[in-house]
Amino acid sequence: MAEKKKDRNRTIDPAALEVLARTEGSGIESAYDRYLNMQPQCQYGNTGICCTICIQGPCRITKKASKGICGAAPYTIVARNLLRHVLGGTACHSDHGFHITMVMKEIADGHPGDYSITDSAKLKMVAERFGFPTEGRPEQDVLKDVVNLAMEEFSRLDKKVYSAWLEKTIVPERLEKAMECNIMPNSIHKTIAESMAQTHMGMDADPVNLVFQSLKTALCDYIGMHIATDLSDILFGTPTPVVSEANMGVLEEKMVNIALHGHNPILSEMVVKAARDMKDEAIAAGAEGIKCMGICCTGNEVLMRQGVPVLTNFASQELAIMTGAVDVMVVDVQCIMPGIQTVAECFHTKIITTIPNAKIPSSYYVDFDETRAQEKAREIVGIAIDAYKQRDASKVSIPQVKHKVVAGFSLEALTDILAAVNPDNPIKVITDAIDSGELAGVCLFAGCNNLKVIHDGSHTAIAKELAKNNVLLVATGCAAGSYAKLGLMNGDAVEEYAGEGLKAFINRLNEANKDKLQDKLPLIFHMGSCVDNTRAYDLVTALAQEWQMDTPKVPFVASAPEAMSEKAVSIGSWVVTLGMPVHVGVMPPIPGSPLVDGIALQIAQDVYGGYFIWEEDPAEAAKKLLGALQERTWKLKVHKMAQEQYETDAISKTW
C-alpha cells in the first residue's frame, strides 16, 4: 500500500499557503516540513515523564519501570520538568528586562549615547508608584531612583525585603495570597538560582513544593516583564494608536526590505531610525528606498511605537525569506529558528545576529554595542543595501496579501480612549458595560505558534467565537501577529464579527473619539509584545480596583491557543497565580502525573482562584472560556443584587 502523502500546509494564512505551494518540491526545508519529518513525536516527552536531568538517564516511566533510576516518581519528574520550563521562560524575559535596565543605567549615569528619555510622563508615573519624589527634581535624578530599584529587583539578597514591582502593581489581596503561600520573591536572579538548585538530581522530590517554586519563579517572570515594559515606555515612548499593515504583502520589490525579528526594542528602534536616515544610499543602489517590517515581538515593539508593518509571526518566519524579497533579517533574542540561515542560503538574504548569547552558525554577526547604537544600526542597514544589489529578481514572488492594522493600545492609550466617554472614571466604561450585560467580559490572547495545531487557526477560531458572544478582546505577542495578518485588527472586522453588545461598545468609543483617532477602533486591541502581557494584567488590576474586589472575581480570562515556548509556560503560570483562568490550546508535558495535572486544573483554583484549561479543539475552548466568564459575571451580578438588597458591602474582597 502506498504511503499516504503528508500535508505540510498546516496554516490558514493565505500568504503562507502561497509560499508553501510555490516551494513544494524545491528542496527548501521549513518548519512545516520538519514538523512532518518529526512524526511520530515521543509520547514520553509529550506527557512529561521523561527525565534527562542527570546522565544516568534518560529515564522514561513505563509499566516496567515505574520510577527513575534514582527513584524519582512520575510526579517528581513532571513537576521538576515543569519548574525548568518556567525557569527558562523567566530567565528569557528577565534577561530582556535586565538588558533594558542597563541601557537606562547608562542614561541615568550621564552616558546616554544615542538613547534618551522619550516619555517623561511615564517616568514620573513609575517613580511616583514607588514613592520617589518627582516635583522640582532633575529628570536624570528621578530616573536614577527608578533604575536603582529595578537593579535591586534583579539582585536583592535580603530575605526580609520583597519585590516592590510586584507589590505595587497588584491588588493587596493578591499580595497577601503570595505571602501566605510563601511564593513572594525577593529578587529575580536569586529565585532563578534557587530553582536551578532545587531541580538538580538528588534535590527536591516533593511535587507540591516544586509546583509552588514554579509559581514563585513565574512571579519573577511577571516582575521582569513589567520592568521591561515600564522602562521601554520611558525610553522609546508609551504606545498610542497607530495605523499600519500586516502580512507578506508589505514587502515591496523596489525597496530594500529589512525584517526585524526577535524581542528587544533596544536594537530595532535604532535600525528603524537608521533606515529612515539612509534612504539616499538605497536610492543610489537602485532601490526606491528602505522598508522595515517586523516578525514576532520585535515586530510588535516597532509596530506599537513606530507604525512599522508586521511581516509575519513565529511559525512562518522562514517563509518570509522564501519570497525572495527579504534583503536582511536582523535578529536579536528569542524565538529565532536556526533554520532561517539554511533557508537564507538559498537566496540572497543575509541573516544578521546581534547579541552574544543568540548566534547562528554561518550568519553575519554585528556586535550591537549600545554605546555606538546608531553606528551599528547604520552598519546593519548598509549590509541590507549591499544585499539588495545581489537580489535575484527571478526568485522574487511576494504574496499580495495584507490587511490594515490599528494597533498601539497601551493601557494608557486605552484609558485615554475610555476617558472620552467617562473622563472622571475611564475604567468604569468597561465595568458598566459588563455590569449591564453589554459585554460578557474580557479575554487576553497571548502565546506563540505551534505546528501541533494549524498555524493561526486556533487563534482565529476562538477569537471570532468570543467576539460573536460580546467579549472584549485584547492580544499580545504572536497571537496579536495572527490577528494583524488575518484582518482582525481593524474596524471592518468589528462590523463582520462582533456581537451586538461588543459592536455597540466599540462604536460608542469610536463616536466619542472621532476627532482624535486616525481610524476606527479594531475588533481586537493590540497591547504589544510578550513582555507587554503585564499591560493586560494591569487592566485586570484596574477592573478589580473599580469593583473593589480580588482579581479572581473579575470576568477576565486568558487564552494561549498555540502555546509553544517556555515563556508561554511561565506567563501562563503567573496569570493563574494572579487569579485568572488560562486556556492552553496545546497539551503541555504534564498529564504523565495525574497529581500535577490535578494541581494545575483544580487545586490551583481552590488556592489562587486561577486555573488552567487544557483544550485543543478551538470550538470547545471557546465554550469553556465563555463558561468561565459567565460564572464570574453571574457571581458578580448576584453579589451586587445582595449588596443593593441588604444595603451592605456584599462583595467579598478576597478570594
Using DSSP, what is the number of strands? Answer: 16
- Helical residue percent band: 40-55%
CATH architecture of the largest domain: 3-Layer(aba) Sandwich
Average pLDDT confidence is: 95
CATH first level of the largest domain: which class? Alpha Beta
**Globular, elongated, flat, extended or rod-shaped: what is the shape?**
globular
Beta-strand content = 5-15%
Low-pLDDT residue intervals, each spanning 5 or more residues: none
Distance between the termini: 60 Å
Strand order of the largest sheet: 6-5-4-7-8-9
Structural class: alpha/beta
Number of domains as seen in the coordinates: 3
Q: What is CATH's topology name of the largest domain?
A: Rossmann fold
Report the major sheet: 6 strands, parallel
**Cα-atom Rg, whole angstroms?**
24 Å
| Total of helices | 26
